[in-house]
Structure formats: C-alpha cells, structure tokens
Protein: tRNA uridine(34) hydroxylase
Amino acid sequence: MSYDVVAFYRFVPLAGLEALREQLLAFCRKAGLRGTILIAPEGINGTVAGPSAGTLALVESLDGICGLLKGEVKHSSAATWPFARMKVRIRPEIITMRAPEADPTRRAGQYVSAREWNDLVSDPDVLLIDTRNRYETKVGTFEGAVDPRIDSFTEFKDYVETALDPARHRKVAMFCTGGIRCEKASSFMLAQGFETVYHLKGGILKYLEEVEPDASRWNGECYVFDERVAVGHGLAPGSWTACFACGQPLSGDETQADSFEAGVSCPHCIDRLTDERARDLRARHLQMTEAKRDASG
Structure:
C-alpha cells in the first residue's frame, strides 16, 4: 500500500483559529490522515498523508474554508506512513520570520513557474538565493545558487541586511522546498527596498515534479520534513537517511563512518553523546525496531 502525501500552504487572513483547529483535527482523524497543519492569522501551512480519498477531501474542504487552491498544493507518495500522528497547531506565523513588515497577504514578489525558472536563472543579472537552512542545502541545491549558510529562517533577515544591497542587487530570485519561505522572504525584501524579486512557484518540489532530469539545473536531492528524508526528480524517494538522535540528513558515506550507530549517533552529534543518552537512545531504537517488526507481521 502507498500513501498520498499532500503539502500545501496559503497566505490568507484567518480568524476563529481555535474553532478551525478543532474542525480540522476532527476532519483529518475521521479521514484517516496523519501529519501536521499549522494555522495562524496569516494563513495555513501543512503536510498530511493518508488514503488519496482522504487527502483530496481535505484539500476540497480547505479550498472552501480559505481558498486553498489559490495557494500551493502538491501531491507525492510514500510507501510507508511518513508521519506518526495527526496534529493541528495554532501559531503566530505559519512560517516563522519575526518580521512584521513581511506580509505576503499584502505584498509579495513575482511568481515564476517551474517551466520558466531555467530561463530566469540563466540571466547573469539575476542573483539566485537558496532561502533554506544549511542542513537542507547540503542535500542539494540549484546550480549557481548562493547559500546564506543559515541555521533557521529567522536568520535570513540578518543575511539580507549584511550581505545584500538594493542598489546593487536589482534582480533577485529565491527558492525553497515548497514555496512558502521564499514567498515570505520576497515580501521582506520588497519591504527593504529591493526592486525586483522573483520566487519559484511551488518551490523545489514542483520543479522536480515538472522538469525532466536532462533539462534540470538541480544538483542532488531535496530535503523533505518527513521520514522520506529526501526526494529526487519525479519526487521519487531519495538516497539520504536521517540521524534519529540529532535529525541531521546523512549521506551514504556518513552512515559508513565509525561514529554512526543507527538510532544513536552520527558524525554530527557524536561529540555531544553522553553514556546515559546513548543508553536511552539504544533502548528507544530497539523498541521502535520491534514495533515495526510486529506491525509487519
């Protein structure tokens, strides 16, 4: 059996968040869905998996509530459950930036479709920026993209203020996993006086879905925030795994390192591993392994 995975977001003013949270949680549980949905005064953002009938019903319901289909909706698949449970949470922002001037419900950059993206970023006058965190960019990025080397999206503001200049960088193109971060980043940059700001509609996931590998400017795979860890062209499951202890994505070479122990440690966290922590993680890993074996019969 495979599961439909639907990722979506829309910047749209929302009110009555507590009632909406209860409504969405009940709907998703009844439809047999798992994942996470965030709602905030600025909109909705989520990734949910389950039977295709359930995910389609959810999208239809959200379109009635907040016009979701005017935002971004992307479908992919997973061979096993990518999420353990269903959560609907209220947040101050659907993507945290802590910059009130960044309000995509009022102003955002220019969308560029996946099919038009290659032509845009081939322009030498366009500065191409990856708005994701450094643990994501290590898995893959676009050819020629600038990596701000940030550890959280809130740090993107500092990068813009210290490394970019509206007078010099007149054309800027940005991208992220599904489109939400670069859309909000575009709103922030316009507020800072940048002249022309583009962002990839649907993000990397839409690009990998629509653009054939032989025409692609993408190098590597795309990190995703579920148990698949990464996907490639056609949104096929990728080759990366993740460290259970620290969450860092791991290449095949990193899983062969002496410091790697499944469920316990990797080269990124071995220096912080205490004996007590290692003992607890080994016990947890054993429990999870036995639970999966029992579930598979």
User: Anything to note?
Assistant: The longest strand covers residues 3-11. The chain has a mean pLDDT of 95.
